[in-house]
Fold this sequence. Notes:
Layout: E1 6-7, E2 9-10, H1 16-21, H2 23-30, H3 42-45, H4 53-64, E3 70-72, H5 79-91, E4 101-104, H6 112-118, E5 135-137, E6 140-142, H7 148-162, E7 164-165, E8 171-172, E9 174-177, E10 191-192, E11 198-199, E12 221-229, E13 233-239, E14 244-250, E15 285-287, E16 294-295, E17 298-309, E18 321-327, H8 344-347, E19 350-357, E20 386-390, H9 399-406, E21 423-424, E22 453-456, E23 463-470, E24 481-485, E25 489-493, H10 503-509
Parallel strand pairs: 2-7, 20-21
Antiparallel strand pairs: 1-8, 3-4, 5-6, 9-25, 10-11, 12-17, 13-15, 13-18, 14-17, 16-17, 19-20, 19-25, 22-23, 23-24
Amino acid sequence: MNSLPMNSLPMNGLDYQTLQSTQALFQALVTHPLTPTLFAEPSRASLLAGDHAVDLTEYIARCALDPCEWIDAPPDLPADQATRLVDKAVLTGVAADQGTKVFVGELGLCSERHARLTRRAAVPAFRWTTAAPATSAPDGWQVVAGGEGEACLQRVSACLLARTNAVDARVQISLRGDGTDLADRVPVNTMFREDRGTPIVSFAPCATAPGGDPRRNCDWQPHYVGRCTAGRRVTLEVATPRRIELRVCAGVYGCDSAASPRTQLAGPNPPFYAGGVIPHDGDRSFDCPNNGPAVEGQATGYFAVMYRARDGRALDPAELAVRLREVAAPSAGGTALAAYPATEAEVFTYREGSFYGNLFVPMPPPPDGAEIFTPEGDAKALFDSQFACYSDVWSADNAMLSHRLCAGPVAALPEGCFGNPPGACDPTVAAAPRACVAGRPCLPAAARTVPGQCSVGSDRSTAAVCRSRIGSALPATLPARTQDWQYPLTTYLNHPCDLFADRETCLRNLAEPPPGPIP
């Protein structure tokens, strides 16, 4: 089944203290190819014992490597670290008999697959499995400026920043930029987002023999997300040689039946952002929910399909052919927008912002006077060579990123929790006067010389080049410098409030409220 990246890396895994304390781990990673035997050397295996070292290694592998590439877990970790790695193996779907394959690839931003995608555009390609992007140096390591290795590290850095949040959530996102391709289908989420992933009851195996009651909250499998025109009648036509049951949920998450028999575990009430079961009749027809954006002037909706074989045996998604037929109401007009499966571009339509920089630079202890903590004692985000910008979906600068990366109200601090305060991504967006305070970007501007401003890619949907002013969080006596970052990644969400600490504040900061009911 196709998979999309999740945003669930803890924010404190990228703060200054953590990155400074994991310099030895970063040196080991950037000066060696990422092969299965990387941690077979005991001196390198011991580097995984530090705080957030396992998290960082997991996400570096997920960003850099292909799904068929991995790094073996070290064989002789202390018991507590081994337990954490087993937990990670479960979360990444690695089978018990493959327990050493813990750090599994996913996006392949430094892989042969990425090289094939970017070859036409003459973008530097690099395979981290066969070569190291840096060499050892007296102060840690050295990367050749402008080379393929630096391009790889910038792509992985943008990926790590884009997959980070401070609200303890696990949210599916769409990452777009250099060398990324969009999926032709989106799998149904099997976990709610709380606590960095809360399993949905119905996807667990049944404890008893299989039965034919479609209300049973067990043994279900995820299929895909579909899109339809809100309010129109939709019919799912299923072709498979085996007898199956379907459950249709509103939104992009799986769901539990509230009417489950008492002998089975009943699912809890769904969270506010997830829909429940959509009632459908015997021919699998239902009314399209109104929970998506307006497309070509028409309200749309999303639905998630779950399935279960009557005989209780697992059924591969490829064995289940589902077609969607949408019937327009007599008075309805416009273009039919029904799609099953819906594509990644159709499901993730809200541009959140862009992320760029380089986490893989030697980081000495902070100089005297550097403000790496907020007045409350929390570590600042986006420090040193870490940057982000927000899209024109947002009416107030820093609103979205303050909640996503600081997990707190925008007004708590003048600059949020940022060392490098984000600016607006687009240089052509007209900002309200309130954005021109505290040294933040005042748009529109004649040139991109302030943090957070990016040129727009050829498809008008992603950032192409972003300019930063490094040093904004350091003492004023230290020289600041500007730099153009060639490899930003732009994030798209299914709903703009997906990574907000609370939806009420999110809605207050949207430039325009999303159409349809608020999930």
